Amino acid sequence: MEDIRISGMGDLPGGEYRSVSVSGMGKCTGALSAQSVTVNGTFNCKGSLDSQTTAVNGTLKCAGPLRTERFSCNGMADLLGDTVANTLTVGGMVHVKAAKLEGAEITCTGILQSDGQISADRVKVTGVVKAREIVGDQVSIRSHHVSLLKMFLPSASSISSADLIEATTIDLEGVKAGVVNGHDITIGAACTVDCVDCTGTLRIHPSAAVGSITGDYTMLE
Q1: For 138-192, how does the pLDDT look when each residue is reduced to its tens digit (9 = 90+)?
Q2: 3-state secondary structure the chain
Q3: Contact, 22 vs 34, CB < 8 A?
Q4: Residue 147 φ then ψ, to 5°
Q5: pTM above 0.90, yes or no
């Protein structure tokens, strides 16, 4: 397998490579498989992308499914197909459009958007996450102001939001949610939740707004 480096403008037809590195403007017209993909410029993948590691410090657009062991983004990524990553780290902005995002561990200090479901064993967000559903074993979302948000989403608020958050352990702060369903749940400051369904322990911050509570739970201070 060969290494591909695009430092100016270049296209590749797809295929299998050892490494793909883009520091200029690149386009792949077919399915791409590589041990590593590094994007420091602009890369448009028209097909699927399969790699061991994917690092985005520039701009990536992937039209097909993306499968990778390790995905990191400190730039911008638009992912139009289902995305599976063992570990996914977001320090920039990632938008998964009309597709599902799956992983073992998702960490976000930037902005993560999904028009579908985010599913992972562990989800830890200190930036902003917006999704239809967030499902996992441990979900911690403590949203703080992200300066990139107003640059890329001038009309959006800097609060995380989801229609459904479901996990065994849930810890929220600065989150707007429809339904929060879990065993041990903490609804922290600046949260707005329509309904909480809890089967274990429940903590609610005095400043949080919760519409209704169901389930067999123990309220803690």
Answers
A1: 999 998 655 555 555 554 556 899 999 999 999 999 999 999 999 999 999 999 9
A2: CCEEEECCEEEECCEEEEEEEECCEEEECCCEEEEEEEECCEEEECCCEEEEEEEECCEEEECCCEEEEEEEECCEEEECCCEEEEEEEECCEEEECCCCEEEEEEEECCEEEEEEEEEEEEEEECCEEEEEEEEEEEEEEECCCCHHHHHHCCCCCCCEEEEEEEEEEEEEECEEEEEEEEEEEEECCCCEEEEEEECCEEEECCCCEEEEEECCCEEEC
A3: no
A4: -65, -30
A5: yes
Q: How far apart are CA 48 and CA 64, in angstroms?
A: 4
Instruction: Confirm if 99 and 80 have CB atoms less than 8 A apart.
Output: yes
CA nearest to 22, candidates 75, 69, 66: 75
CA-based R_g, the chain, Å: 19
In whole angstroms, give the CA distance from residue 7 to residue 28: 14
CA distances in angstroms from 213 to 194, 207, 216, listed in the order given = 9, 16, 10
For residue 159, which phi and psi values (nearest 5 degrees)? -100, 140
Tokens of 31: 């399915």
Q: Return the closest-CA partner of residue 66 out of 41, 94, 42, 40.
A: 94
pLDDT of 75 strictly over 70: yes
Q: Give the Cα-Cα-Cα angle 185, 90, 105 (nearest 5 degrees).
A: 50
